[in-house]
Specification:
Low-confidence stretches: none
CATH topology: ABC transporter involved in vitamin B12 uptake, BtuC
CATH architecture: Orthogonal Bundle
Radius of gyration: 19 Å
Number of helices: 11
Number of domains: 1
Mean pLDDT: 88
Number of strands: 2
CATH class: Mainly Alpha
Length: about 290
């Protein structure tokens, strides 16, 4: 194995890890605030990428504006979904929320397959981020470096907002004791809507970042979301820090497996999930409810 191969696989692993971290962070926020496992997160990631592509194809709005407009549009869409449908499941068994989001995933994916087919739509890399750097032993594309740095920056900002600000403390209080939080005059339903919109906006950001790398396809979120759920389970359901650390770590681990023994790359995440669940069912960073 050459140094170039190892470095190349580590770069791919970091990119995948950045997407895992952002998507699993959105899932952790939604589960932590709403108590719902959002099976539609992968489909919403796909819709976010399509919003960016449609903005470019029909309105001539490029990548940089799409990086702002797509998450905003998806956050508004998520707020409507939460108020019309998901809010009705809060007082029901958790299985109803699971089935509802699974249904939303099938509807969204089916609609986009019907409209655009299964072939991927190309999305150009912005001119500022084309090309790369020659380090002597490998070529580092500018865009992939940007994806890693920007994704991690967004995740750290969200982590700081949830864990270190008054808004984050209010959101966590509404999660842990909604009745007492209401008694202080805080609008808990509004906080839940904000939490769901924030989680979906993160998926949309990931979708825009992924568009120039993976192409825009109705099926782009179907396989990725399975790995993302494994990341959330390993890190701990609802754990913000667990999503960040586990997402990046598993992305790098996948890259190393591809470099040393490729057949294990697709299974290492699930083997690690089984091992973690056997030793610590709450996840590596999750709170033990016993």
């Amino acid at each position: 194995m050459t140094l170039q191969l190892l470095a190349g696989q580590l770069l791919i692993g970091l990119i995948n890890g950045a997407f895992y971290a952002m998507l699993s962070l959105g899932l952790a926020i939604i589960f932590g605030l709403l108590g719902i496992v959002n099976l539609a997160q992968g489909a919403l990631y796909m819709v976010g990428a399509f919003v960016a592509w449609l903005l470019l194809d029909h309105a001539g709005i490029g990548y940089w504006w799409a990086l702002v407009l797509s998450p905003v549009c998806m956050a508004l869409f998520a707020a409507v979904l939460e108020r019309l449908f998901i809010a009705r499941t809060y007082d029901l068994d958790h299985r109803y929320g699971l089935l509802l989001t699974f249904g939303l995933m099938l509807i969204l994916q089916g609609m986009f397959v019907h409209w655009f087919g299964t072939a991927g739509q190309t999305y150009p890399i912005p001119e500022l981020l084309r090309g790369g750097f020659d380090t002597g032993f490998m070529f580092l594309p500018k865009y992939r470096i940007w994806v890693i740095v920007f994704s991690l920056s967004v995740c750290l900002v969200i982590w700081y907002m949830i864990e270190r600000t008054s808004l984050g403390r209010t959101l966590r209080a509404a999660t842990e004791n909604p009745v007492l939080t209401r008694a202080f005059g805080i609008n808990v339903p509004r906080l839940r809507t904000i939490g769901f919109a924030l989680g979906v906006a993160l998926a949309a950001v990931a979708g825009v970042l992924a568009a120039p790398i993976f192409q825009v396809s109705p099926l782009m979120g179907a396989e990725l979301i399975i790995v993302v759920f494994a990341v959330v389970v390993i890190g701990g359901m609802g754990s913000i820090l667990g999503s960040l650390v586990t997402g990046i770590t598993l992305g790098v681990l996948e890259g190393l497996c591809k470099a040393f023994y490729a057949p294990t790359a697709n299974t290492v995440v699930f083997l690690l999930m089984i091992a973690v669940l056997l030793v610590r069912p709450a996840g590596m960073f999750g709170r033990d409810l016993k």
